[in-house]
Design brief:
Elements (H helix, E strand, L loop, with lengths): L3 H14 L6 E3 L2 E3 L6 E3 L2 E6 L5 E9 L7 H14 L3 E6 L5 H10 L2 E5 L9 E6 L11 E7 L10 E3 L2 H27 L4
């Protein structure tokens, strides 16, 4: 018999796995670059972007009856850093505490509420059936929602109508995060301009 957490991980894997060309792993084990320990992750996948570059996404699933606290975000950030993942996503059934949202924003971690229930002010992903899907492409499923991620200009969110747009926003987010770090480093080195 599977636990609610295992069911949620399987559901998350199926949602992401509905894409063509994306191998989704559940319970995959990575070796930490720093700790050298074996790190088991809930869900992971690599997504190929321009020129064949692969971006490693690690997804942490939180099937809680309470909002995800800040220490869970910090622990996840440590895991991402040790693995060397390019992007981290935390999904939950309930939501995130304010400190967790702020910490995720500062750490460049995307937060998602993976549920069909509306949650005001939270990121919302809904998996719906559609008759316009091409057979074999997404199994008659698509993602839609509003992404509010770590960058400060996400306050209003960005609307996405499919998983491709969602992954594109996450990749853009990772690029913007690196650009902002470069600007901050240049300003530190040159006395702020």
């Amino acid at each position: 018999m599977t636990t609610p957490s295992e069911n949620y991980e399987q559901f998350t894997q199926r949602v992401i796995g509905s894409l063509v060309g994306v191998d989704v792993h559940r319970g995959h084990i990575y070796t930490g670059r720093v700790s050298k320990r074996q790190i088991k992750v809930d869900v992971s996948f690599a997504y190929s972007i321009a020129n064949g570059a692969n971006v490693l996404f690690i997804v942490e699933c939180k099937c809680y009856n309470r909002r995800v606290p800040v220490d869970d975000v910090e622990e996840f950030h440590s895991k991402l850093d040790d693995i060397g993942a390019h992007k981290g996503i935390m999904v939950t059934t309930v939501g995130f505490q304010r400190g967790a949202i702020e910490t995720a924003r500062g750490r460049g971690i995307a937060l998602a509420l993976l549920t069909s229930e509306f949650q005001p002010g939270e990121l919302r992903y809904v998996v719906n059936a559609t008759t316009t899907a091409k057979p074999g492409r997404d199994g008659g499923q698509f993602w839609q929602g509003n992404l509010r991620g770590p960058r400060s200009n996400y306050d209003g969110g960005f609307r996405f109508e499919g998983i491709g747009q969602f992954l594109g926003l996450l990749c853009l987010d990772a690029v913007e995060e690196q650009r902002q770090k470069g600007i901050a480093a240049w300003e530190r080195e040159h006395g702020g301009g």
